[in-house]
Write a structure and sequence with these properties.
By secondary structure, the protein is of the alpha+beta class. It contains seven helices and 17 strands. Strands 5-4-3-2-1-17 form a six-stranded mixed sheet. Helix 4 links the parallel strand 9 and strand 10 (about 175-180). Helix 1 runs parallel beside helix 2 (about 70-85) and helix 4 (about 165-170) packs parallel to helix 5. The radius of gyration is 19 Å and the shape is globular. The relative contact order is 0.16.
């Protein structure tokens, strides 16, 4: 017999940054109001939504923009969460101490309280994505956050390429995987390379949904953001948007534009995870006695 339906209406707020902290935060708050008016109970914002993606260059002055948690942004998000009765997942540049900064997701519950935080565990260092300069790797582990809409497995961007992260969130009881994201193309990439990258990004996350029998939401930035001190008009990142939601068999439930801002609304049946896991019992059949080498960097 199928489990009783648990429907959750969620919004993924895909924005083009204005590169102004106050304006970008206000944009997120206004989008949250629209989502709540449309009946959404969960709002997912994109990675580092309070401004431009600053990691394209290494600049010490950027650390001035970091803030404590709790702090001004969590207060603003918490206030609107309480006023609207929605759960909000945001993404902030956290100042933990002098010289210790994190890329941190925050979860504001429907009563406005700070239900939990997740510090990004996997930190990239790639052309245009100099995050190791700015962010200390997370130290809170993979722990879901209990909220009024369920237990949320919140991860951040680069984490989405690692099956271990999604699996550990699922093993800890997450009912939904969420990824605030900032990923895009180098404008020099040709159309075929762009298509391969975007499809790989989407495919690996749909694979996490399938392997763990969980629905998944990924909210990405969109639009071109020039690099600081850009050497030319194409020096920057073209964020590819394409925010999406999929079900526990990887089925696409909703997908946003790859070129324009969008409030992507989606209905999710949280009870389907139980149904799917009964026919695909991956957790039952895992050979945990044979996986010891996964704790090694490489198997020589």
């Amino acid at each position: 017999m199928q489990s009783t339906m648990r429907n959750l209406k969620a919004a993924l707020i895909q924005r083009a940054a204005r590169a102004d902290h106050a304006a970008d935060l206000d944009d997120c708050l206004e989008a949250t109001r629209r989502a709540a008016a449309a009946g959404c109970r969960l709002v997912l914002l994109q990675e580092l939504h309070n401004g431009a993606y600053f990691c394209q260059r290494e600049r010490t002055g950027v650390f001035e923009a970091a803030e404590p948690i709790p702090g001004p942004s969590t207060a603003a998000l918490g206030e609107i969460a309480a006023a609207l009765g929605v759960v909000i997942v945001g993404s902030l540049f956290e100042r933990r101490a002098a010289g210790v900064y994190h890329n941190t997701a925050v979860v504001l519950d429907a009563d406005g309280s700070l239900a939990g935080v997740y510090r990004k565990m996997h930190i990239p260092d790639d052309p245009g994505y100099h995050e190791k300069f700015y962010f200390t790797p997370g130290d809170l582990g993979f722990r879901p956050v209990d909220t009024a809409v369920g237990r949320l497995g919140v991860l951040v961007c680069w984490d989405q390429w690692f099956p271990e992260a999604a699996r550990l969130m699922a093993m800890a009881g997450a009912e939904l995987l969420l990824y605030p994201t900032a990923i895009g193309w180098d404008p020099a990439d040709d159309p075929a390379e762009r298509a391969r990258q975007r499809e790989a990004w989407r495919t690996v996350q749909r694979g996490h949904a399938v392997a763990n029998g969980l629905p998944l939401l990924a909210c990405n930035r969109v639009g071109f953001e020039p690099a600081p001190d850009a050497a030319g008009p194409d020096d920057g990142i073209q964020f590819w948007g394409s925010s999406f939601a999929c079900g526990p068999q990887g089925e696409l439930l909703a997908e946003a534009s790859d070129t324009a801002p969008q409030d992507l609304l989606v209905d999710i049946d949280l009870s389907r995870a139980e149904t799917v896991r009964r026919i695909w019992p991956f957790f039952r059949d895992r050979r945990i006695d044979a996986y010891g080498d996964l704790l090694k960097r490489w198997r020589d």
